[in-house]
């Protein structure tokens, strides 16, 4: 059906498609979070600063400040997320070659989420203990 070279090319392109697809989902998640934060900030502006000439003199309630901070932190985490199960070039290989665990890629793809560092560490620990 497929020779070895064709099968390897098919697997490589499938992995690239999965990696790209997960990034698209992550980008859309970040956009949703940015829109949520912007809407929240616009609501604050209308609520707290609409009748004030100098908005710098108004203090927001602590709970509102916390909400703004949480939304901002969530967005920054989403924007800076990386793949923790991809390993860089191995000795003797091209600099552009990366290695990944296809099981974790498949999980990310099917669940539409990027795995966090701690999750990858736990899964690797479970796998090592199972051997």
Key phrases:
3% strand, two-stranded antiparallel sheet, 67% helix, elongated, mainly alpha, 131 residues, single chain
Brief digest:
The chain is mostly helical and 131 residues long. The chain is 67% helix and 3% strand. It has helices spanning 4-48, 62-80, 102-111, 117-130; strands spanning 86-87, 99-100.
Would you mind describing this structure in some detail?
A two-stranded antiparallel ribbon has the order 1-2. It is mainly alpha-helical and 131 residues long. The protein has helices spanning 4-48, 62-80, 102-111, 117-130; strands at 86-87, 99-100. The radius of gyration is 22 Å and the shape is elongated. It is built from four helices and two strands. Helix 1 (4-48) runs antiparallel to helix 2.
Topology of this structure?
Layout: H1 4-48, H2 62-80, E1 86-87, E2 99-100, H3 102-111, H4 117-130
Antiparallel strand pairs: 1-2
Helix pairs in contact: 1-2, 1-3
């Amino acid at each position: 059906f497929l020779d070895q070279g064709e099968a390897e090319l098919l697997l490589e392109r499938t992995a690239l498609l999965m990696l790209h697809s997960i990034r698209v989902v992550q980008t859309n998640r970040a956009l949703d979070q940015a829109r949520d934060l912007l809407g929240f900030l616009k609501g604050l502006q209308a609520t707290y600063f609409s009748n004030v000439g100098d908005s710098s003199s108004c203090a927001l309630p602590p709970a509102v400040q916390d909400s703004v901070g949480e939304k901002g932190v969530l967005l920054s985490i989403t924007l800076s997320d990386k793949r923790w199960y991809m390993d860089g070039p191995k000795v003797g290989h091209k600099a552009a070659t990366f290695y990944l665990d296809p099981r974790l890629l498949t999980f990310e793809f099917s669940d539409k989420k990027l795995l966090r560092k701690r999750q990858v560490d736990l899964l690797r620990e479970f796998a090592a203990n199972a051997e």
